[in-house]
Amino acid sequence: MHNSRMGRVIALAAGVAMSCAAMAGQAFAAPPPSLPGDPTPQVVGGSPAAKGEFPWMVRLSMGCGGAMYSESLVLTAAHCLGSTGPNTSITVTYGVVDLQDSAAIRRTSSYVYKYPGYGTSEGGDWALVKLSSPITGAATLPITTTKSFDTGTFTIAGWGDTSEGGSASRYLLKAQVPFVDDTTCRNSGAYYRDLIFNAELCAGYPGGGVDTCQGDSGGPMFRRDNNNAWIQVGIVSHGDGCARRNAPGVYTEVSTFASAIAAKAAELGGGPTPPPTGKVFENTGNVDIPDAGAAVTSSIAVTGLTGKAPATLKAGVDIKHTYRGDLVIDLVAPDGTTYRMKNASSNDSSANVITTYTVDASSEVAAGTWKLRVQDTYSADTGYIDSWKLTF
């Protein structure tokens, strides 16, 4: 029987195997010492998250985590909830890293949807909680729609237990865990023999030490996409204890269920609000780019828009430069989040950057001051920002 990680957070084990009955209510612990026999300490993260670092994280009153899918919907794990239907018993806490922070925004639930495939051979440990009223302007975490992000290194966060069998954390903690392929995961022990390849992802270190734990269930596992934006690839589901050796955590494979999640969200009337389209904001003022110098910025104040920026935000740039391979170009959102649009390349000796980049900025509020940031990373060539624009 799977140990669900209801209310789970990242547990950083100290190399002592402790029992963990039902994984409900897990959290992150402080980094442990190196485990015996490990070539290097198997701990990445396990540190307190800064306020606003993961603004879409929420805590559910039954002891689970979740992420804001839209201003009125939370994506969490099916095993955290009872049956589908009206439900006003859940309190959602949003906007803080300290659960005792008086600035917390709270909403009660009005309805829950539990994916019917959960508990069957199909898998699908995901659910949606609809809020009694939207959290206007809430940050949201986009979900992946492709399996191309189901690998690499992932970030996990939560308020769950800080060790197996321990107590929950008052503060949001974060850590990183590497992808574990399906075959390796299934061969990790008898616990994993029923792993559903197309519905579950595994992540963790062979030596243990970093993991989600009881109280972290339903929280997101996420990583950066090609535009350097956070994207959710997993949902904390279950595992064999917390942070044990050769016992990776198991997460719902969001890419498999992305279309079903989107369809149900639309049916519940709480899908992401379609942003305005065709609105153009432009800055035509020239900004010199110093040769091999500090980055410079050009700003655009976006006004008159409500809700989120689109997943297809267009950033059109016109930069005159004698060697464009020198340039690194970023789009900076109003909250300071940076989206890399171009890296430097010593092999690109052509002049000028006159193109349009598409950025998934759907987690950002549209209104505010956006910046184009450009840096010349090599000497000998110069240029300037001629103009740039944003098309919503």
TrEMBL record:
**Which superkingdom?**
Bacteria
For this chain's UniProt record, which GO biological process terms are given?
A: proteolysis
Q: What SUPFAM superfamilies does UniProt report for this protein, alphabetically? A: Galactose-binding domain-like, Trypsin-like serine proteases
Q: What are the residue boundaries of the P/Homo B domain, all occurrences included?
A: 273-392
Pfam families for the chain: P_proprotein, Trypsin
Checking SMART domains in the record gives: Tryp_SPc
Signal peptide (residue range): 1-29
**What would you give as a GO molecular function for this chain, any one?**
serine-type endopeptidase activity
Q: Which PROSITE patterns match?
A: P_HOMO_B, PROKAR_LIPOPROTEIN, TRYPSIN_DOM, TRYPSIN_HIS, TRYPSIN_SER
What residues does the Peptidase S1 domain cover?
A: 43-266
Can the keyword Glycoprotein be found in this entry's annotation?
Answer: no
> What are the alphabetically sorted keywords of the record?
Disulfide bond, Hydrolase, Protease, Serine protease, Signal
- CDD domains on file: Tryp_SPc
Q: Which Gene3D superfamilies match?
A: Galactose-binding domain-like (2.60.120.260), Trypsin-like serine proteases (2.40.10.10)
Q: What is this protein called?
A: Secreted trypsin-like serine protease
What is the taxonomic lineage of the source species? Bacteria, Bacillati, Actinomycetota, Actinomycetes, Pseudonocardiales
